[in-house]
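Hi R.,

Quick one: here's the Hydrolase alpha/beta sequence you asked about.
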Amino acid sequence: MPEVMFAGPDGRLEGRYHHSDEANAPLALVLHPHPLHGGTMNNRITYSMYRSFEKLGFSVMRYNSRGVGRSQGRYDGGIGEISDAAAALDWMQMVNPNSSTLWIAGYSFGAFVGMQLLMRRPEISGWISVAPPANDYDFGFLAPCPCGGLMIAGGRDELAPEPGIRKLVDKLNTQKNVTVDYRVFDDADHIFAQHAEQVSAALEEHVTTMLARRSLALAAD
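And here's the predicted structure, written out as tokens:
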């Protein structure tokens, strides 16, 4: 997984990027938890999702947002971090100009950033949100949400309580053409320390299912 440095809106950003052996492979961008609470691209759940996309044949990147690791700049309350994510996406699309499929995956604060990016980039066709902080951030901007995705919650998560996430899921599921694959790991807290393999398995199952459905739909056309 080669290290990459790419231009962000507030300086250079540090990432790790795996380029698929498959021609025009789908792309995935993975976003880490809150930078002021120790969140980096090497977080266990972030890394696990990165490896899952790699296993599925994607070209995939994870990166440190501004002020984290060797990335330049300073924490910007979420606004700048959304711009960082867009810059990472731009870099991947520049390297993979013919790829037609793009997924976004985020954990905790990264889930919030990822969903913000989803609303700004219509080419994103799927998403994974692990422990989105639904009680701390207003996800009302997901109206309408452009597509369905996978949302994962921990039953013992005190930082992103499951009832708040379930309320968000229920709201999204009322929208036209949106179906959220919602999974709750009853014994998981916000760290998901013992559940990285379960997160990976859920991601791989969901993404494989959705890619197969789209292939069938294209074949039917």
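The chain has a mean pLDDT of 96.

Cheers,
M.
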